Structures are given as structure tokens and as C-alpha cells.
Amino acid sequence: xxxxxxxxxxxxxxxxxxxxxxxxxxxxxxxxxxxxxxxxxxxxxxxxxxxxxxxxxxxxxxxxxxxxxxxxxxxxxxxxxxxxxxxxxxxxxxxxxxxxxxxxxxxxxxxxxxxxxxxxxxxxxxxxxxxxxxxxxxxxxxxxxxxxxxxxxxxxxxxxxxxxxxxxxxxxxxxxxxxxxxxxxxxxxxxxxxxxxxxxxxxxxxxxxxxxxxxxxxxxxxxxxxxxxxxxxxxxxxxxxxxxxxxxxxxxxxxxxxxxxxxxxxxxxxxxxxxxxxxxxxxxxxxxxxxxxxxxxxxxxxxxxxxxxxxxxxxxxxxxxxxxxxxxxxxxxxxxxxxxxxxxxxxxxxxxxxxxxxxxxxxxxxxxxxxxxxxxxxxxxxxxxxxxxxxxxxxxxxxxxxxxxxxxxxxxxxxxxxxxxxxxxxxxxxxxxxxxxxxxxxxxxxxxxxxxxxxxxxxxxxxxxxxxxxxxxxxxxxxxxxxxxxxxxxxxxxxxxxxxxxxxxxxxxxxxxxxxxxxxxxxxxxxxxxxxxxxxxxxxxxxxxxxxxxxxxxxxxxxxxxxxxxxxxxxxxxxxxxxxxxxxxxxxxxxxxxxxxxxxxxxxxxxxxxxxxxxxxxxxxxxxxxxxxxxxxxxxxxxxxxxxxxxxxxxxxxxxxxxxxxxxxxxxxxxxxxxxxxxxxxxxxxxxxxxxxxxxxxxxxxxxxxxxxxxxxxxxxxxxxxxxxxxxxxxxxxxxxxxxxxxxxxxxxxxxxxxxxxxxxxxxxxxxxxxxxxxxxxxxxxxxx
Length: 785
Ligand SMILES: [Ca+2]
Ligand SMILES: [Ca+2]
Ligand SMILES: [Ca+2]
Prior knowledge:
It is globular and about 105 Å long.
């Protein structure tokens, strides 16, 4: 928190700033723990390999630890893998006659410099026998050990020998004995490019052919007559930190020359990966390098029934959501070569159909380019799917017939996270009542409210009164705070008309629970009944300060002045601010939890009623966090959707020192120029230590386009700026997630924003950027619901 008291600091700082003007990156206002040093396993010479049967169950109770061939039951079968350095394991899971679903939870990321290959070979002078199907049988052990040596000799007989790292034989196929193996090559970086899968394949095939023709020699072909043409090799797998590769083929027990394959990486967006095969056999390879001593993952396999994907849907009258379409077994990854068709029938030609996607958008693609994330054909238009971090709606107009056909197909070798869309009807003549239809993403957005909601900004073009009220009589613009304030501001007083009755809904009207709208701005909890159903005066036990003598202009706050302020701590250290918004719910910024070590709810303690950091007082109460929700569209780089919700472990008992703040209605206006307050224990100056006493600073709401320009158009509609052109007063490191609170004339405080980011602290022309609460309310209410 940086305030006027620190004016000297601020001045010296801005001088410093011009001298050390190298900081152009955006600061995340978080208390960054020191010394985040990831020791990367540079090279893998020291890596220890864990082979078949060497798994440890010391850390985790493993059910059905098996390696090699695993029969899938219709209930999940678990396979746990442990190791302490680097590991590659592979196996085959079989289920007949159904599909397989793989559920994989990656834990950590670590680069690797090994090349990994898997494949199979056929031995002409041996036959499969049932004992070889049992991973734990003596026959399996003897045969696999001998073949493993044979494989090692084979590799050593080629140029690849010097790169040999490890190998294993993990399963056998029927008929003339086919054995499945993997091996790894440790290749110097300079050679990695030339050592392609094709080259490795050629070298092995040449060696096999040459030795096959030498009869009676001492070569590895002496005991095993290996068919050189039977070599199937899949690889080289790219240097993924960890991942899951997926090969499927249509028929069990027979591996075609060209297996389909796809490798999935690990990402925090997908903490659990569920993968479907496209047939009854699935070969899987886990590849994982590690940096921690405790790094398990769990994999379960399950046979799931085949599911048809052709559906007829008849829509009924009405504009509400009517249902959802999805890829089979959603949210599991869809199978390679998925083909889905939905036939929709609308009740009349006046309607179109809207498909509401979540984090997935459709776009036109040039005819010759493939769709790697799903191809859609909607009324003969070809569109490609694309995973995004935004909402998207596809509008399908109906022209000559009431029937709509939608198909989804995935490429034969590619899969991806399951796709789902909700569907509803829309009026062709008025698709967005009272709002603007953004053609880029199909969403209805408020027009002329001063925020460019539509990516192309068309919702704010040609506005007579941007973000202001337009007098009907002469189109003069007045501020919304002058509407229904019982003073005549428009020439004929139209600003004071219809203030106590329902009006047509628009971007600036307040929507009551019964769906009717009122003209008066911000009518919530102002002790006047404005909605017919009185919903504007319900749930108003919020936003009141303890009756205290306020110290005006001071940087130190008074105990009980900000009873919704929370301190979010890890092991006794204040990391971020937060705001109490309801019983058991605290809102904060998503970036507070972005570091992997801060992502677990169990490490956090939330303090309410706190005033001093270094001592505890009788007013404070601590809570553990039972659940932590980050906005699903939160993006680390842009800080878009920087909001998180914390659910507390026990109820909050309110007191003069602990009170929730009021949440605004979606239409609540925080007009530019309004003075609001930010509070927190953040640093008193840029680069400084956190403060012992809870601080407060008043800041002014800044017009969106002015801030957007100051920050080179990095300001999204989910952001709100506050501060001063000259700087001096701002939030700082440690204030993150804390409230930007604005007082209404009724004396109640409403949450306008959350401290998110800014360029330094209190620098001139670098306003503080806050998460705009009215834009993330939908997700918040849904999550707390
Ligand atoms: Ca707008
Ligand atoms: Ca007025
Ligand atoms: Ca009211």
C-alpha cells in the first residue's frame, strides 16, 4: 500500500524509476517467496532407472500393481508407478470388446534429454503359450529377460550401441511369438536432430536383415530367428517433460505397421487426463522425469461401452437453455476418428440455434488446412474448433428449413479434451434484446457502457453518450449518478421519470429477481424498495463499517474499519489479501495461487478480523481453506480473469470486526471519478517490506479507455483501473487479492475490484489494475451456489 504519507518516497521513487527504467514487465502484486530454484536434471547420466518389478509401494498403497499386460475390468483398475529419479514405463491394456478409458494425473514437470522408442518384433522359431500372458509367471520372466538381452545385443550391433541406455520387454502377442518392447537412447543434444525415428528404424532393420542371413554364427539370431520385416517401431518421442502416449489400432492382438499415435503433455489446466482409445486395444507409454523424491502418479484403466454419437433433437419454444451436446464420454478425451452428428429441429423459422461453448471457439479455416482440435460442419459450413480461455457462442440461423445438421469429426490420429456445448433458441429478428450482438464471438454484450466487451470494439462505436445517461428530449449526456436522484438534470426532467416503475431492460437497468428492470442506478440495499418483488433489499447484511471515528487521510486504518479484509497466509507469512463476501467464502486473486507450491488449499490459513500482522488480537479468527477455485479462464500472462474463491472450513460469525462486503449487481455502476478505497498489508513502497498495520488508500476509478491507452491496450473487459494520473497512491506487493471498495450514498460498501497488477507501485500514469467484479459475478455466484 502506498499512500500520500509516502509522498517523498513516491517522488524519489519516480526519480529512481526514470534512472532504473528497465522494469517494463508487469508486476504481479504478490509476495514472492525467495529462491525458487528448480534443480533441473541436466543430462541423465545420473538418472536411475526403475525396471519391471522394481516398483516401491512405500509411499502409497497401490492396488493391483501390475506391469506389462493389464486386463481392464469394467470397474477402474489402478496402476501406480513410483520412482525417484527418472522413469519410463509402458504397457498394454486390453479390453474386449469395448473401448478403454485412461485416467492419468500428471504431477510435475521436468525436461528430459532421452529419446524413447517402443515397438514389437516377431520370433519365427517360438510360439506363444498362455503362461506368457501372465506377467508374474516364471515363463514370462525367463523369456522376457532373454529377449531383453537379445534386444540389447541387437542395438549394440549397430551405431546406436553407444547411445543405448535401457530397454525392456513388457508383453507378448499370440501366434509366432511377438514381443513388445521399449528402449531408450541417450543422445547428445548435437545429434538429436539427425537421430530420427526413421533413421533408427532403418539401422535396426538393416542389422536384423544382415544377421538373419548369417546362419549358424554366434549372432543373437542363433537362438531367436527374428523376422526382420516384422519390426514395428514407434518413436522417437519428443522431449516432453512428462506425458502419455497413446497408440490404438482397430483389432486386438495384431499390431499394424502403422500404429496411430499421439502424445499428451502435462498441463495444470488438465490435472486429470482421461483418454479414450478408438478400439479395444490401447498401448500406453508413460514418460516422466522427476525432481522431487515423492512424485507418484496414478493411472486407472476401465473398459467402457461403445457409444453411438448420432442424436435427433427437437427444440421447444422458449429462449432458455434446452440441453447439451457433447463428444462421447465427455469430459474424457474424445477418440481419434470420432464422428458425431446432431440433427436439430426448431419450432419455427423465426428462430435460430445458439451453441454455447466453454473455452472452445469455432473459426473458418482454409479448405486445405486440417482441423487439429476437431472439425465442425454446420449447415455445410466447415469450421475448425480451437481451445481458448474465453466464452464463445455459435449462432446458426435457420433459413429455408427448420432442420439443422451439425457434425463433429476428429482426425484419425488425433484426440483432445472432450467438447461440450449447451444449446438454446434465439430470435432471428432480435438476437440480443437490449444488448449488442458481437459478431466475433456470438455473445450479447452491453453497448455504449464505456467497456469494449467485443474484441473488435464495435459495441462502443457510434455511441451518443458513452457510459452516460442520454436525456430523451435533447440527447444531452448526464452522469448516471444524477438519474433518479430527485433533481431535474435533463431539460424536461426525463432523468426523473419512471423512477418508481418497471422499465424495459437495458445495459444500465437493474434486473430484479422476477426479471423486471428498474431505471434507478445501483438500487441494491439502499433501504428504498425499488423492485416490485423487493429483491433489491434482500440479502443486505453486508458492507457496513463498525461505528468508529474515522481518521481521514491517514494511511493507518482503524480496527473494524474494513471488517471484510482478510489476510491469506502460508506458514505464518502474509502472502495475499482477500475479501469476505459471504459466510464461508473469501474472494482473492487467482495469481496468488499460480505458483505450484501455493496451489493446494490445505497450505493456506485465512485470518478475518485481523489488524496487526506481528501480533494476534482478540478480534481475529483463523480458518483453514477446504476448497480453492480459480477462474477457469484465468490466464497467467495477461492476468485476465484474475479471481479465485476460497471456501472456509467453518462458518463465519459476524461481529463489528468481521462483516462481509456487499457484492454489486451485474449492472452496478462504478463511475469514473468515484473515490474508492483499497486496503491491505502490502508494501509501503515499491520493493519495500509488508506493513504491520492494515493500511488504507483512497483511489479514483479511471475511465476504461484512458487506462487502456496508458497500458498499451492490455486492459481486458475483466479489468478496472483506479489511481491517479500523477501516481502517488496505489496498491503494492502483498496487497494482491485485496478489495477495492466503494461506498454508496446509503453508507454501504460494495466490492468493485480485486488488487491484481500494475506497473510498479504508484508510478505516474501507471494506474493500479483490479479484477472487475461485475464481469466475474456470474462465475462467482455459480461457484458459491
Ligand atoms: Ca460495452
Ligand atoms: Ca436527476
Ligand atoms: Ca433499493
